[in-house]
Amino acid sequence: MGLSKLSEDTWLDPTPDLAARREGFAAYPQGIQLTAEGDAAGRELAAMLGIDGALPEAAAAHHEDMCLLTRSAETGPYKLLGAAVAWPSDWLPADKIGKPLRALHEPIAGYEEQLASGVDNFMAKLKTGAIYGRANWFISHTADMRWIGAPPEQAFAHVTPQNAGETLFVRSERQTLRKLPQTGAVLFTIGIYVEPLGNLTRANQAMLSAAMETLLNGEGDRRGSAYYAPQLKTYVMRNS
Q: Would you say the C-alpha torsion 226, 231, 232, 237 has a positive or negative sign?
């Protein structure tokens, strides 16, 4: 899973752009998906963060999108019962609400075979007070914080080895997990950061170029890598 333990002061981004968050939710109201079962956890979260309201208000007051997962029985699966997502990375919250963890990750190649059991065990054993985090990355065709992907053959059609530094964007999700003490719900936060490929250091560009070769079979297809990887690799090689 690639998780590291975090301290309280490194949990959430300390400098959120609150105007951008308000605009993000106003432009994408369907990013808020709530169920009655998740209401108590949302109110607990807001109170913990010193905010009046519930899950939507908590997410609007921070840089991170926020999702709540709970389970109805001690040994049952965790399900997504609340989402406040202004800036999704090519997924629709309405398609995920109410689903258990394994179903949430179905599109990800290798998840069921390599990660599902480990994630389930981690969630079951997560203790109140502990905070864990990880980061992932994607290559996107847009600098927009909200990324709902077009078909990759269209999205990356304008990318060439000459312009890849300006037309390809590295999108990272800083994800954290934390269990709420009263309801036992697990809070999953997603902090989005986007930079043009050309703004990265040459060392990081080289790492991304090498990673083009190591995407899991099938996962590269999901990310549309065939439509940008050759241009990215040639761009990096020419600028190394």
A: positive
Cβ 186 vs Cβ 179: under 8 Å: yes
State the DSSP code for 226. G
Q: Which residues pair with 139 in a beta bridge?
A: 170
Alpha helices in the chain (DSSP H): 18-27, 39-48, 55-60, 93-96, 101-104, 116-125, 152-155, 164-167, 202-211, 219-222, 229-239
State how many domains the chain has. Answer: 1
CA 99 from chain center: how many Å?
17
Structure token pair of residue 5:
């333990």
| pLDDT digits 0-9 by tens, 33-55 | 999 999 999 999 999 999 999 99
CA atoms within 13 A on the CB side of 195: 11
Residues of the chain with pLDDT below 50 are 111, 113, 216
* Cβ-Cβ contacts under 8 Å for 131 (sequence gap 6 or more): 5, 6, 7, 8, 11, 176, 177, 178
| Residue span of the structural domain in which 89 resides | 4-239
Q: What is the pLDDT of residues 18-36, one digit of tens each?
A: 999 999 999 999 999 999 9
Q: What letter would DSSP give residue 150?
A: P
> Looking at the whole model, is its pTM more than 0.85?
yes
